[in-house]
Amino acid sequence: MIARVFITPKKGVLDPQGRAISSSLHALGFDEVEDLLMGKYLEIRLAPSGHGDPAARVRAMCERLLANGVIEDFRFEISEEASGHDA
Amino acid sequence: MRWGVVTFPGSNDDLGTLHVLREVLGHEATPLWHKSDDLGGVDCVVLPGGFSYGDYLRCGAIARFSKVMSAVAEFAAQGGMVLGICNGFQVLCEAGLLPGALVRNRSLSFVCREVNLRVESVANPFVNMALVGDVWRIPVKHGEGCYVAEETTLDQMERDGQILLRYCRADGSRARDAADGGDYNCNGSLRDVAGVMNAARNVFGMMPHPEHGADASLRDVNWPNAGVPDGLRIFQSIAGWVTDRGQRSAVDSMR
């Protein structure tokens, strides 16, 4: 089982990296870029376990360690398929 | 006065801090290892600067789960004094011992220079050898020192005197608005915040490095402030507070 976790800066929190990247894209002529958020992507391989609902476990991982609720939002997907690295 | 200075994997200002506490102040200072949960009965724990756990995930995010941090959290809950410098400040925010968080500098550049700091409050254990409005010069060196917190949190901290130091110009002034120029704010911190204290007033974190501005023999010859180096005043403030507190409780116990 694979959990894919996306962590992004919270709305309203300064994202100087996102801003710098979006102005670089503008400099390259990609004028259509309106806004860009720079975040993190984590891929977690989960063993089948007796820990209960995997979604609840992944949510707990995000809340306790992976994301900082003061500055970041997170969302995740859980799927049965293998990770991209195995392909 | 007994100090403890924590070493995490990747800490690099632990020895500099021990030097100032022992050689400049002449106090007793013990190194504390991240795998130990024994703080050795110290009066104040210092979390030093550096790059604990390589700044992986977020600065301070991994260090806050180290064994020593459980002991530090318990120590703080019992009123023990905790000082976090730079990475130590980041660890304290990640641990929830201080409000807010520290993110990438607005300039995206690592800053390494001396900054001016306006003393905002002096009725506290950490910044009391000064007058409100004094301007201190202390070095910074960080890439992720931009302080952010919810507006309501910032309002509340301002109201309760928890913001102890702010970045400012050499004359102590700050920008009135965005057009007024904010170059003195080296990292883009909201409301120019450089150092904050918790509501219980026993935990303090600051991005500038008082230990780098504490040894007069290493002082820049052009340093504008004569007398006690400004960084040293942080450590002296804490020591003075702890000693007074000890004397007060000794007097109370004789009554």
Set down the secondary structure blueprint.
The complex is a heterodimer of chains A (87) and B (255).
Chain A: E1 2-9, H1 16-27, E2 40-45, H2 54-66, E3 72-79
Chain B: E1 2-7, H1 14-24, E2 28-33, E3 44-47, H2 67-77, E4 81-85, H3 87-94, E5 101-103, E6 111-119, E7 135-142, E8 146-148, H4 151-159, E9 163-168, E10 193-197, E11 203-206, H5 230-254
Parallel strand pairs in B: 1-2, 1-3, 3-4, 4-11
Antiparallel strand pairs in B: 5-8, 6-7, 6-9, 9-10, 10-11
Q: Which tags fit this structure?
A:
heterodimer; A: 87 residues; alpha+beta; Mth169, Chain: A; three-stranded antiparallel β-sheet; B: alpha/beta; Rossmann fold; nine-stranded mixed β-sheet; two-stranded antiparallel sheet; 5 helices; globular
Structural class determined from secondary elements of chain A: alpha+beta
Spatial gap, N to C terminus of chain B: 24 Å
Low-pLDDT runs of 5+ residues of chain A are none
Order of helices and strands of chain A: EHEHE
| CATH C-level label of chain B | Alpha Beta
Major pleated sheet of chain A: 3 strands, antiparallel
Strand content of chain A: 25-35%
What average pLDDT do the residues of chain B reach?
A: 93
Order of helices and strands of chain B: EHEEHEHEEEEHEEEH
Largest sheet of chain B: 9 strands, mixed
In CATH, the topology of chain A is named Mth169, Chain: A
Count the domains of chain B. 1
Shape of chain A: elongated
The rough form of chain B would be described as: globular
Q: Please state the second-level CATH architecture of chain A.
A: 2-Layer Sandwich
Class inferred from helices and paired strands of chain B: alpha/beta
Overview of this structure, please?
The complex is a heterodimer of chains A (87) and B (255). Chain A is 29% helix and 25% strand. Chain A has 87 residues and is of the alpha+beta class. The longest helix of chain A is centred in the C-terminal third of the chain and has 13 residues, at 54-66. Chain A is elongated, with a radius of gyration of 16 Å. Chain A starts with a strand and ends in an 8-residue tail after the last strand. Chain B has a single domain (2-254), classed as Rossmann fold, CATH 3.40.50. The model of chain B has no long low-confidence stretch (mean pLDDT 93). By secondary structure, chain B is α/β, with parallel strands linked by helices. Chain B is built from 5 helices and 11 strands. Chain B has helices at residues 14-24, 67-77, 87-94, 151-159, 230-254; strands at 2-7, 28-33, 44-47, 81-85, 101-103, 111-119, 135-142, 146-148, 163-168, 193-197, 203-206. A 9-stranded mixed beta sheet of chain B has the order 2-1-3-4-11-10-9-6-7, with helices on both faces. In chain B, strands 5-8 form a two-stranded antiparallel sheet. Chain B is globular.
